[in-house]
Amino acid sequence: MWFIFTLATTLIWGLAELFYKKGALPNEKYAHLKICISVGAVMGIHAIFTLLTKDIGYDPINLIMYLPVSLLYIISMAFSFFGMRFIEESISDPIENTSGAIASLLCVIFLHERLEIPSVIAILVIAVGVVGVGFLENTGTTNRKAKIGKKMAIIAFTMPFLYAILDAFGSFFDIYYLDDVSTSPLVGITEDTIEEVANTSYELSFAFVAIILYIFIRSKGVKYELPKQRDKILAAICETAGQFTYVFAMSGNGAIAAPIISAVCVVSLLLSRIFLKEKLTARQYFFIFMVIAGILALAIIEGD
Questions:
Q1: What's 115's DSSP letter?
Q2: Which of 120, 157, 219, 295 could serve as a FRET partner for 259 with CA atoms 20 to 30 Å apart?
């Protein structure tokens, strides 16, 4: 089942990327923080719904226990949202989506997870395809080239690198937290509840961050007008749905799931072709085929 959840996460987060592209406006002050507020609000609602409708035996201490993982994801996403306001997805996507390969490497080094040679080759194929399709994504239909100073341009360009590193460590620690109930730092969990306890902790943390950010932008005289946040809210809904399936994916075979999920940029590119009418070149289709071939190869290898 973990493989199905992995594919579901990839597809849903690819859809989220589509709305992030539309919502991260370069000329909208604090657009990146407004996206964070939208994501936190939707996740908070889902967390409360889970606590009210499901008996997962949630211990509030898990909010603290899972906080290191939550903060790695939240901060990495904030960096990504900031960067996408000013630089093209063709630059940021291939950098950000190396996080899956980094996470797999961390698992091999520190968690002693073993990857067979065919799996390593398939992961490399996916990584090359993701980087290739990202660097070729330069259609010009989504203009992120805002007129910013040299200092801000340097800061914006560092954002994808910071995202890749933080997200990779988030995935790595997620594998550690979710791989085995007996060794997980989470409290009061069972095999049936560990994923939802972790997800609820993350969503509540994001909700608290959203409240803080909302207070901050209001103190700056910036309004969060709900009707104008449609794309951000749609992205938040997809992000929350993907996060729900993500924890189930990472609790299975995280070292394999992480690089597959990094293919979200491919899904985003295909959706942009359909809904935003962005054109794809023959070379882009070639790298997309590489990613799909790598994912299918992993499905066959891990299914044996």
A1: -
A2: 157
- How many angstroms separate the CA atoms of 237 and 268, rounded? 16
Maximum pairwise Cα distance, the chain:
58
Give CA–CA dist 294/215, Å, rounded. 45
**Distance between CA 224 and CA 33 in Å, rounded?**
10
Q: Confidence class of residue 201 from pLDDT cuts 50, 70 and 90?
A: very high
Q: Which residue, 62, 34, 55, is CA-closest to 199?
A: 62
Contact 99, 265 (CB under 8 A): no
Band the pLDDT of 113: cuts 50, 70, 90: confident
Q: Residue 63: exposed, middle, or buried by beta-carbon count in 10 A (0-12, 13-18, 19+)?
A: middle
Q: Is 10 left (phi over 0), alpha (psi -120 to 50) or beta?
A: alpha
Task: Band the pLDDT of 134: cuts 50, 70, 90.
Answer: low
Contact 104, 123 (CB under 8 A): yes
Q: Are 19 and 231 in contact (CB under 8 A)?
A: yes
For the CA atoms of 132, 134, 138, 141, what is the dihedral angle to 10 degrees? 150
**CA gyration radius, the chain:** 19
- Please classify residue 292 by burial: count the beta carbons closer than 10 Å to its beta carbon, then call 0-12 exposed, 13-18 middle and 19+ buried: middle
The predicted pLDDT at position 283 comes to 82
45: pLDDT strictly greater than 70: yes
| pLDDT computed for residue 198 by the predictor | 96
pLDDT bin (cut points 50, 70, 90) of residue 139 is very low
| Sign of the CA dihedral running 294, 296, 299, 301 | negative
Mean pLDDT of the chain: 84
The Cα–Cα gap between 28 and 258 comes to 32
Amino acid 98: pLDDT: 73
What is the CB neighbour count within 10 angstroms for residue 50?
A: 18
